[in-house]
Write a structure and sequence with these properties.
- It catalyses: GTP + H2O = GDP + phosphate + H(+).
- It holds the Pfam family cobW.
- It comes from Prochlorococcus marinus subsp. pastoris (strain CCMP1986 / NIES-2087 / MED4).
- By secondary structure, this protein is α/β, with parallel strands linked by helices.
- The chain has 3 domains: 196 residues, P-loop containing nucleotide triphosphate hydrolases (Rossmann fold); 125 residues, no CATH class; 91 residues, CobW-like, C-terminal domain (Hypothetical Protein Yjia, Chain: A,domain 2).
- The chain is globular and about 85 Å long.
- The structure holds guanosine-5'-triphosphate.
- Guanosine-5'-triphosphate binds next to helix 1.
C-alpha cells in the first residue's frame, strides 16, 4: 500500500465476554501480511486485555480514559494522531471497543474530524455475538442492540454452546434487526480473516454484490417455481418439513421472466392477505386463491393439480420447496411416476415478525431527486431522529448530475460524495436506514417528496 492511501480501520465491538479478545488474538497471530495497529480501550482497569493479546509485532495503543464512547473526540483522535506519526509502521488499524460501548461515536469519529477522515477510512464494523447469551442481552441493554444494528459483520460466536435450531432462530432475529449485515457462525471466533478485514463494508455496491436481494421488499412467501405442464392430473407431493402447514398460491399462465414473476408476487401478496382455504392431502389446488396445505400427518402428502390445457403453472409457497422436498409428479394410467422439474425458481425475502424495536428500512426508487429538497428532508430527519438512526447508506441520483452520489452516515452525521458516472445504467436511488423505532411509511413518503 502506498503511504498516501488512507488507512483502513475496523471497529471490533461485542458485548462483554462475547469473544472480542479471542478474535483479536486470532487476527494478530495469523499470517495475513498486514501490519496491524491495535487501539484498545478498557473499561475500568487499564491493561488487563493487553496481557492477553499475543504477538508483540503489532503495535498496541491504549485509550486511557475509561469508556471509549464518552471520550471519543479527545482520546481516539489523540491516539490516531500519534499513530500517524508512525505511519510507516502499520497498514491497518483495529479499534476494539469495550463491551459496554455504543459503537456509534467511535464510527462517527471517522466522519466528523477532517484530519482523521483525510488519513483513515472506516472499513467495517464487526460485532461479536455470544450465541448463548445474546437473547437476554438484547432484552436488557440498549448497547447490545446498537452493536447488532451497527454491524457490517456479525460473528455469531460460541456456537458450541447452543443447538442448531436455536442458532437458526437467533440468526433470523438478528437479521430482522439488521438486514444488511453478514452473519458468520463461529466457535472460538474461528472466522476466516478475509470475512472481517478489508470489507469495504461502507460501500453499498459490495453489500449488493453479497446480498442482491438486500434492497428488496419482504414477502409473505419464500419461494416460487414455474412448471410447464401438459394436460392431465399431477400430484404435488410434500414430505415432512419444518411446519405442519404451508400457505400456497397457484397461477396458471405464469411467465418465466423476472418482471412476470414480480407481477405475480405482488398479486400473491394481495391473495395471501385473504383468509386461506384449508386443503387436505388428496384435495385439488385451485388457481388464484390462498390455500393452506395441511401437512400435520406423518409421511408424505399429495395434492392434485388438474391441468385442462397445456400451461405454465406458477406456485408461490410460504416455505422453500427444498424444506419439504416438494415435487410435481405425473402419474399415467399404468401408474408410472415421472417427476416434472420446475423450469425456473426464485427465492424471496420472507417477512419476519418484528419483535425488536431495532430494524432496517430500505427505499429504492428509480428517477432523480431534487438535491435541495433531499438535503432539507435528510437534515430534518437526522436532526429529529438522528439519535435513533444508527446507520444510513445509499446511492442517490441527483438531478442534473452525471455521477451518482454516495451517501453514508452515522447518527446525525452524513457525507454525500460524487462517485462513478451513471453511464447507461438506469438512474435510481437506493437508501438504507438502520435504527430504532423507524417509521417506514413516513420515511418513504418523505423521500418520495424529494423525487422530481
Ligand atoms: N465455549 C466457548 N467459549 C468461548 C468461545 N469463544 C470465546 N470463549 C471464551 O469466552 C470468554 C470470553 O472471551 P473473550 O475473547 O475474552 O471475550 P471479550 O469479548 O474480549 O470479553 P471482554 O473483554 O470481557 O468484553 C473466554 O474465556 C473465552 O475463552 C467459544 O466459541 N465457545
Amino acid at each position: 500500500m502506498s503511504i498516501n492511501e488512507k488507512v483502513p480501520v475496523t471497529i471490533l465491538t461485542g458485548f462483554l465476554g462475547s469473544g472480542k479478545t479471542t478474535l483479536l488474538n486470532r487476527i494478530l497471530s495469523e499470517e495475513h501480511g498486514k501490519r496491524i495497529a491495535v487501539i484498545e480501550n478498557e473499561y475500568g482497569e487499564v491493561g488487563i486485555d493487553q496481557g492477553l493479546v499475543i504477538n508483540a509485532d503489532e503495535e498496541v495503543f491504549e485509550m486511557s480514559n475509561g469508556c471509549i464512547c464518552c471520550t471519543v473526540r479527545g482520546d481516539l483522535i489523540r491516539v490516531l494522531g500519534n499513530l500517524m506519526k508512525r505511519r510507516d509502521k502499520f497498514d491497518y488499524v483495529l479499534v476494539e471497543t469495550t463491551g459496554l460501548a455504543d459503537p456509534g461515536p467511535v464510527a462517527q469519529t471517522f466522519f466528523m474530524d477532517e484530519e482523521i477522515s483525510s488519513e483513515f477510512t472506516l472499513d467495517g464494523i464487526v460485532t461479536l455475538v455470544d450465541a448463548a447469551h445474546i437473547d437476554q442481552q438484547l432484552g436488557r441493554s440498549d448497547e447490545s442492540s446498537e452493536q447488532v444494528a451497527f454491524a457490517d459483520v456479525l460473528v455469531l460466536n460460541k456456537t458450541d454452546l447452543v443447538s442448531n435450531d436455536a442458532l437458526d432462530n437467533l440468526e433470523s432475529r438478528l437479521r430482522d434487526m439488521n438486514r444488511m449485515t453478514r452473519i458468520i457462525r463461529a466457535e472460538k471466533a474461528d472466522v476466516p480473516i478475509e470475512t472481517v478485514l478489508n470489507l469495504s463494508a461502507f460501500d453499498l455496491d459490495q453489500i449488493l454484490k453479497r446480498r442482491p436481494t438486500f434492497l428488496e421488499p419482504e414477502y409473505p412467501f419464500e419461494w416460487s417455481g414455474v412448471y410447464e405442464l401438459e394436460p392431465g392430473k399431477y400430484e404435488l407431493k410434500l414430505e415432512e418439513g419444518p411446519d405442519p402447514e404451508m400457505s400456497l398460491v397457484a397461477f396458471a399462465n405464469q411467465g418465466f421472466s423476472e418482471e412476470e414473476l414480480k407481477e405475480s408476487a405482488e398479486a400473491s401478496v394481495r391473495l395471501y392477505a385473504e383468509k386461506a382455504k384449508n386443503l387436505e392431502s388428496g384435495n385439488t389446488i385451485p388457481y388464484d386463491e390462498h390455500v393452506s396445505l395441511k401437512l400435520q400427518n406423518k409421511g408424505s402428502k399429495s395434492f392434485i393439480l388438474d391441468i385442462e390445457k397445456a400451461s405454465k403453472i406458477g406456485l408461490f409457497t410460504q416455505h422453500t420447496a427444498e424444506e419439504f422436498n416438494m415435487k410435481v409428479l405425473k402419474i399415467d394410467s399404468q401408474d408410472n411416476v415421472k417427476e416434472i422439474p420446475f423450469k425456473t425458481e426464485r427465492n424471496w425475502v420472507a417477512e419476519h415478525e418484528h419483535d425488536d424495536e431495532v430494524g432496517s428500512i430500505a427505499i429504492e426508487r428509480f428517477g432523480d431527486v431534487d438535491p435541495e429538497k433531499l438535503n432539507t428532508w435528510m437534515g430534518r430527519l437526522l436532526s429529529e431522529k438522528g439519535v435513533d438512526i444508527f446507520r444510513t447508506k445509499g446511492f442517490i441520483s441527483y438531478s442534473g448530475n452525471p455521477r451518482r452520489i454516495v451517501f453514508q452516515g452515522v447518527h446525525m452525521l452524513f457525507t454525500a460524495q460524487p462517485d462513478k458516472e451513471w453511464g447507461n445504467e438506469p438512474r435510481r436511488n437506493q437508501l438504507v436506514f438502520i435504527g430504532r423505532n423507524l417509521n417506514e411509511k413516513e420515511m418513504q413518503e418523505g423521500f418520495d417528496k424529494c423525487l422530481i
